[in-house]
Amino acid sequence: MASIEYLILILVGSSLIAYILTKLNTTLGSIFTIFVTMFVFVSLASFGFGMNLITTVNVLPSVSFAQTYLGFYFVIIIVFIYLMVSFFHPHFLDKYKYKDSYNLLFLLSLAGILGAFFTDNFIQLFFFFELIIWSTMLLIPQGKSRSAAVSYFGFSVAGSVALLIGIFMIYQQTDTFIITDGLALLNGPTSVLVFGLFIIAGFSKLGAFPLHIWLPIAHGNAPHPFSPVLSGALVKLGAFIAIIALVKIAPSTTMFTAIGLPVGHYIVALLGSLSIVFGTLMAIKEDDAKKLIAYSSMSHGGYILVAFSLLSSTGFSGGFYHILVHAIASASGFMAIASVARATGTTKMKNPGSFSHKLPITYLAYLIAIISMAGIPPTGGFISKWLIFQGVINRGLIFVGIAVFFGSIGSFLYVFRPLA
User: Fold this and answer.
1) What does the pLDDT look like over 36-50, one tens digit per residue?
2) How far is CA 172 from CA 20, 158, 169, 251, in A?
3) Using CA atoms, how far apart are residues 245 and 262, in angstroms rounded to an integer?
4) Under 8 Å between Cβ of 297 and 207
């Protein structure tokens, strides 16, 4: 049996060991990081699918955990992305000035991931939320620009403040920090305010319109092996917070009788549509391959928001599947671009060299990833987008449907550009 508490402690302890080993030898520290990440993934996969993870706490004071299907779904996807990306470390860390701290922060952020998705307490959720933000904020400057970290941190702090205010409003009404109890007892006008605050927190982390400004800056300037983690894994924390708001909180707002949706959900669906359209348009004109995929991630975040705003089984199915598909596809795309950047020294698409001839395996991996992101049959991207589009049509949301359709068509115009 695997204990959530012990897995987190192992990651924290291993981060310090990885720091020492990386300081002695970069390759040795990176290989150690791979094995630690692999151990965590195997432990979660072996016991998590049967909901057999141990949630009791023996060491950490005043900390409690609970395994939920929603939390485990996000965790297993994110840890898998971390594991795949960790194999890049031995080949990239030698290029960074503070390479000894890279593996330390990488494992600390993974510890924060486990804590955030498995906690049953709002205060602990906020603490782990901050652990993720601070550890990743210190990783981003190791790329091209420190200003990218400032942008990322600024929007993350805005989301953190919104989340914290929402948590204390829940406590003020329900007198509990337990997530399930607090959400169950929340009602009245307070639920409307908490709904809005959680949506702001989710948008800021997901990089959805209008809180998207940090996304292309951070993704475009982050270290090449960390961009896949940002896009494929960490932005999903925003989706998690947004899903809690859209599904778990029932704000006392009027209903649009024609479509049967609360006003708040309809507004989120419209903002998700704007994320799809704006992300697609910006990706079409982008010349930097990493920023292109970043804008694409913004667009796909819009699909997730639209899906869970529908409050229908079809929308939920499409949304959950799209989370999985986009995590794998975007991480694969970023890893392929990282390989190209290492070989050619640039992420600019006007001068990438002979991509298909020099790096045929990388070319194939990127091709599969972008086909899925574009939603071309029979990839998973097509299935998830079709389910979301079907859910939108069933609700009769004409404008949202147009945006979803435009995003699918527009993706054909930008995803193949790096292959040109």
Assistant:
1) 999 999 999 999 898
2) 45, 21, 5, 17
3) 12
4) yes
| Mean pLDDT, rounded, for 376-386 | 86
Find where tokens 């069933």 sit. Answer: 394
Q: Which amino acid is at 306?
A: V
- Cis peptide upstream of residue 216 (ω within 30 degrees of 0): no
Q: Are 228 and 329 a contacting pair, CB within 8 Å?
A: no
Whole-Å CA distances, 20 to 28, 85, 147, 274, 350: 10, 21, 28, 46, 41
**What percent of the chain is helix, strand and coil (3-state, nearest 5)?**
75, 5, 20
Q: What is the pLDDT of residues 181-226, one digit of tens each?
A: 888 888 888 888 999 999 999 998 888 888 888 888 887 777 878 8
Within 13 Å and on the Cβ side, how many CA atoms surround 417? 23
**Residues paired with residue 256 on neighbouring β-strands, in sequence order:** 261
What sign results for the dihedral spanned by CA atoms 142, 281, 326, 244?
Answer: positive
Q: What is the mean pLDDT of the chain?
A: 85
- Contact between 201 and 116 under an 8 Å Cβ cutoff? The reply is no
Alpha carbon distances (Å) from 174 to 168, 240, 250, 416: 10, 22, 15, 51
In contact, 18 and 107? CB cutoff 8 Å: yes
Compute the half-sphere exposure of residue 44: CA atoms within 13 Å on the CB side of its CA. Answer: 30
Which tens digits make up the pLDDT trace of 246-273?
888 866 555 555 567 888 888 899 999 9
Contacting residues for 414 by C-beta, under 8 A, at least 6 apart: 280, 283, 284, 286, 292, 296
